[in-house]
Amino acid sequence: MEVRVDFHTHIIPEDISHLTEKLQGDRWPILNRTCTCGANIMVAGKVFREVTDQVWDPAKRIHDMERENVDIQVLSPIPVTFSYWAPVEEAEVMVRIQNDFIAETVRQNPERFIGLGTVPLQNTEIAIHEMDRCMNELGLKGIEIGTNVNGKNLDDPYLIEFFEMCDQWKVPIFIHPWETLGRERMPRHNLMYTVGMPSETSLAAASLILGGVIEKFPRLKICFAHGGGSFPYILPRLDKGWRVWPHLRLIEQPPSYYAKNFYFDSLVNDPLNIQYLVDRFGYDRILMGSDYPFLLRESPPGEVIDKTLAITEEQKRAMLGENALRFLNIK
User: Fold this and answer.
1) DSSP label at 146?
2) Burial letters for 280-299: b for 16+ Cβ neighbours within 10 Å, e otherwise?
């Protein structure tokens, strides 16, 4: 029987503004209600994103899931709440609020939701402690992290201990773009979302490979949002650079060798791109994900997989749900 799992969805507590009111500074995201079914996410007094009650109301989400033929949503925080910029003791408050909320949402609706937590990566010791709490106390099934930590790429030496524990504890990692490179050049046309995020994701994936993280921890389970951004399409260029600059090599094999370890969600907007991911990485590495409930999401979830003609029904079933459950270590 086909089970449809939307691996890429975001949620935030409706009362986040009240829960974080004691935190210092104005960079903390708050929800400013605009009507009974909508709000603005505000950062530093400016509108960061307009949202609807879908982003906090589990009942609304379940209604949409039934309408769009989704059996299970995987819930993860909105990246603007990662708060790597903040003092770690305050960021820890923020992530614990969200992790507790997601865990409670799953507890109340265990057949419809699976939860991912997040951690304050600006301090690996506290991040590891919170990851332990997420996995072993709250019953969450993985961790969502950003593509950089205050401008440091994910191969920065201080993060090695974090990835080592992810490897030891078999914690699945969902990497989502945030604080994108070049955003000062992208205020027009919402280019941060359409160009900046795919480029940022590509940089994160390339850093993990070229910095030796994947070579050191080949069992890491890592899934990149938005189909890996531009990474799958520049992979041959990364291989070329590895060949022509041997003095820069930190890894034994070309990047494409290690890229086979990665997973990608299916939010690529075109069946041609799904086919490309299948051909390059294999259908077992693609997880259906829609980015619910935001404007750039796929609706209905899984449509681009359904419209990919040159794949079998077995492969479609895997990408629409089975791969996500396997990635999250759920039998």
Assistant:
1) E
2) bbebebbbbbbbbbbeebbe
Say how far residue 24 (Cα) sits from the centre of its chain.
Answer: 27
The pLDDT of residue 30 is 83
**Exposed/middle/buried for residue 39 (C-beta within 10 Å: 0-12, 13-18, 19+):** buried
State the Cα–Cα distance between residues 94 and 105, nearest whole angstrom: 17
CA distance 193 to 208: 22
Smallest Cα–Cα separation from 232: which of 276, 282, 269?
A: 276
Q: Where are the alpha helices (DSSP H) in the chain?
A: 16-19, 58-67, 88-108, 124-136, 160-169, 191, 197-210, 213-216, 231-244, 255-259, 271-281, 303-306, 313-317, 323-327
Tell me the pTM: 0.96
Q: Parallel, antiparallel, or unpaired: how do β-strands 5-10 and 72-76 relate?
A: parallel
Residues 1-39 pLDDT 10s: 789 999 999 999 988 887 777 888 888 888 888 887 888
Domains defined for the chain, CATH in brackets: 5-11+55-327 (3.20.20.140)
Strands 38-43 vs 46-52: parallel, antiparallel or unpaired:
antiparallel
